[in-house]
Amino acid sequence: MRKDFLWGGAVAAHQLEGAWNVDGKGVSIADVMTAAKHGVERQITAGVQPGAYYPNHQGIDFYHQYPTDIKLMAEMGFKTFRTSIAWSRIFPQGDEVEPNEAGLAFYDRLFATCLKYGIQPMITLSHFEMPYHLVEAYGGWRDRRLIDFFLHFAKTVFKRYQHQVKYWMTFNEINNQTDYTKAFFMATNSGLVLKPDDPQAEALMYQAAHYELVASAKAVQLGHQINSAFQIGNMINMTPIYPLTAKPADQLAAQKAMQTRYWYTDVQTLGTYPNYMEAYFKRQNYRPDITAADRAALQAGTVDYIGLSYYNSFTVKAQTNQPEYRFLGEQATVANPYVQASDWGWSVDPDGLRYGLNWLNDHYHKPLMIVENGLGAVDQVTADHQIHDDYRIAYLKAHIQAMKTAIEVDGVDVMGYTPWGCIDLISAGTGQMSKRYGMIYVDQDDHGHGSLRRLKKDSFYWYQHVIATNGQDL
Ligand code: P53
Predict the structure, then answer these.
(1) Looking at residue 233, which CATH number applies to its domain?
(2) Is the pLDDT score of 321 beyond 80?
(3) Residue 79 has what DSSP assignment?
(4) DSSP 41-67
(5) 250 pLDDT higher than 90
(6) Is 373 helix (H, G, I), strand (E, B) or coil?
(7) What are the angstrom distances between the C-alpha of 21 and each of 18, 24, 305, 396?
(8) 173 tagged catalytic
(9) What ipTM was estimated for this complex?
(10) Closest Cα partner for 169 from 115, 121, 104?
(11) Ligand 1 pocket: which of 29, 171, 425, 427 to mutate (most atoms <8 Å of CB)?
């Protein structure tokens, strides 16, 4: 383990800040998403509809309660706190020239509070919360002009916080949109709002992803010009895909599925499109707008580290005898008989974290930062206000152990570990409050009712000890 290992926790602005229309903030894509549950998808409404319930509007009111929340994180011993800057607080519409000073001032206060406790803010630039105006007026990331809007936002915050923030990452889980049949991923990653079964969905996804990759590479270059000490990473959802059997066709199916899901990382770390993607575009007769200048930017803006989330693994088996082995996302996966699943159907597979870390290390040879990991579960509060979340401790313990094995046995360079939702917040996938990840409990239900009071769970004290011993005692 590094001596300066970055222990901490992770959140995203739209899932906890609330204050959706306070101090000049504009509407974001997350502000037009309704609440749902396991098996029911969140709806993306056309603007904010009267009478509809949008859980992100209130979040957990972190916008006002952050001083006490950061204090609790300091008590756990956090070295870093990963959050995002809500793009629509800084540029309410997304295409303005002048930033919203009140939005910038909020992050001045938040970062000063973190630094007061020796907690380094770690910042995601775009985490599922682009200004909704960019979705309505430009169709989201299908439009090349989004690159410059994003860079203007990036430049504004890089300059403003260059002395407060060292660790940055560009687009959260940029590879979720691989699953282009899911409206949620297309909207959250790229502001692409399509009709179900739109025949253009896949081609539009590749175009949008390309513009994001160019924007990401240019942001890396820009950030380094503003402060050469910045560490700027990408952020991918690492869900290893296993073959169900040793049958060669199953092996190929898994290998091709990994290519389909992780080519983004090739572009962001190696600076070029992998040959299988160029071949795929040709075969499909997709002609994405990829210019020579874009290719030069990709080459010049490779990331300093790879940020990853890890929750679960997938398993596939060959469906056809065709050489393509197309992978259509989670719907194309099969159950893995060797792993259990959470109440929300996510497999629980600590070895998969070790596997994923090794896979990334083998392919890219860059430092890795685990910026999300955790178990979404229902918690019970006892009569004396305790939360005995031994299931969460067991999950985190097994995953930290797997990470330690990757570091100590396999020699992988891991810079830090920031488990997801260190304080309970709104679930991205379902909009629920009851899908809890935190070590800090927040009293609120799925309808937005509750005192918002914060309580320490058993995992709070457990994680505090893990950090105090730099991961020695789990
Ligand atoms: P929730 C889907 C698949 C994997 C990770 O997810 C995902 C999603 C989107 O739901 O999101 C990441 O809240 C994401 C966070 C999110 C977290 O995982 O659906 O970066 O914003 O909250 C957990 O349980």
Answers:
(1) 3.20.20.80
(2) no
(3) S
(4) PPPB-SSPPTT---GGGTTT-HHHHHH
(5) yes
(6) coil
(7) 8, 6, 34, 35
(8) yes
(9) 0.96
(10) 121
(11) 427
